[in-house]
């Protein structure tokens, strides 16, 4: 990493240690295919920090500060990591680590789906936006699928004119491909039978949760299966997606007691299970 005054968005040493092996393996694979075999001249950590800076501040690439790699270099790496699935691999590995640290198995079995329509700026291409007739919003619709502790498992962004059912089906497909262990998903009443039937075809029980108008705020009770330990989380502020308040009440640890499936291999050849154990110690217990 170059010697400069750090920005608030920069990765800490500990966080960089979590993702560095995957990025280094990716770069080495590209260098091995290069005819000249010349080494790269840019530090991967500087590139990743540049991407984080642009993401956090929302600036155009050309406005990156001069103490980062050039905007062309930063965007080249961003586009390559996006197109070659490196960001997805990093998210997969980090989700596994976070779940292990929370006392769970690396791969989830339950999920929550929700969508949100947002307005777009005036210079967004017309072909990439649409009108949400129900919410009277011209823009895009973003959908997310998370596990029961809020970790992102799948994301999709479409024109706002696309139905919630279509977005939900996309999310289920992506999540099931990355996490075959998923067998349960909660959705709100905006999702109809099409999502339920599609989920059934994938082996996912999709449950529609009706909103309770008498419930205000956010209150979740989690039960750790097998240990008998109970953890309570109380928040006064409403959740970002109020339509899922009732679904939040049902979010319990949904992982069965079995380790009958081998974990997916990471890009660098090490499974995230082994990576988690090396980082968190051998005392971590999967539940």
Which secondary-structure class do the elements indicate? alpha/beta
- Note the beta-strand portion: 15-25%
Query: How many strands appear in the DSSP assignment?
Result: 8
Task: Compute the average pLDDT.
Answer: 78
Q: Oligomeric status of the shown chains?
A: single chain
Radius of gyration: 21 Å
Concise account of the structure shown:
This protein has 287 residues and is α/β, with parallel strands linked by helices. The chain contains 8 helices and 8 strands, in the order H-H-H-H-E-E-E-E-H-E-H-E-E-E-H-H.
Overview of this structure, please?
- With 287 residues, this protein is an alpha/beta fold.
- The protein is 36% helix and 18% strand.
- The protein has 8 helices and 8 strands, in the order ααααββββαβαβββαα.
- The protein has helices spanning 13-33, 44-57, 71-83, 86-101, 164-178, 193-202, 245-249, 272-280, and strands spanning 110-119, 130-132, 137-146, 152-159, 184-187, 205-208, 218-223, 230-235.
- The strands form 2 sheets. Strands 1, 2, 3, 4, 5 and 6 form a 6-stranded mixed beta sheet that branches. It has a two-stranded antiparallel sheet with strand order 7-8.
- The radius of gyration is 21 Å and the shape is globular.
- It starts with 12 loop residues before the first helix and ends in a 7-residue tail after the last helix.
- Mean pLDDT is 78; it is low at 218-287.
List the helices and strands and how they pair.
Blueprint: H1 13-33, H2 44-57, H3 71-83, H4 86-101, E1 110-119, E2 130-132, E3 137-146, E4 152-159, H5 164-178, E5 184-187, H6 193-202, E6 205-208, E7 218-223, E8 230-235, H7 245-249, H8 272-280
Parallel strand pairs: 1-5, 5-6
Antiparallel strand pairs: 1-3, 2-3, 3-4, 7-8
Helix pairs in contact: 1-4, 2-3, 4-8, 5-6
């Amino acid at each position: 990493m170059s010697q400069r005054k750090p920005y608030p968005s920069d990765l800490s040493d500990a966080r960089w240690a979590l993702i560095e092996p995957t990025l280094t393996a990716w770069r080495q694979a590209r260098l091995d295919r290069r005819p000249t075999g010349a080494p790269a001249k840019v530090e991967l950590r500087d590139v990743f920090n540049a991407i984080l800076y642009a993401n956090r501040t929302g600036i155009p690439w050309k406005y990156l500060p001069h103490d980062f790699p050039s905007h062309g270099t930063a965007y080249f790496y961003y586009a390559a990591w996006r197109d070659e699935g490196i960001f997805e691999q990093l998210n997969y590995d980090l989700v596994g680590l976070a779940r292990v640290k929370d006392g769970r198995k690396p791969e989830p079995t339950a999920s929550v789906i929700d969508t949100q329509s947002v307005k777009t700026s005036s210079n967004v291409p017309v072909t990439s936006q649409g009108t949400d007739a129900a919410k009277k919003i011209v823009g895009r619709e973003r959908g997310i699928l998370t596990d029961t502790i809020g970790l992102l498992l799948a994301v999709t962004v479409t024109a706002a004119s696309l139905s919630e059912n279509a977005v939900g089906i996309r999310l289920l497909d992506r999540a099931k491909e990355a996490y075959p262990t998923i067998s349960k998903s909660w959705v709100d009443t905006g999702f109809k039978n099409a999502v339920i039937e599609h989920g059934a075809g994938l082996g996912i029980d999709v449950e529609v949760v009706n909103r309770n108008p008498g419930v205000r705020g956010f209150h979740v009770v989690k039960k750790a299966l097998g240990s008998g330990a109970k953890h309570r989380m109380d928040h006064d502020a409403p959740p970002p997606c109020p339509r899922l308040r009732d679904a939040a009440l049902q979010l319990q640890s949904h992982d069965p007691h079995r380790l009958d499936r081998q974990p997916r291999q990471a890009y660098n050849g090490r499974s995230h299970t082994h990576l988690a154990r090396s980082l968190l110690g051998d005392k971590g217990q999967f539940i």
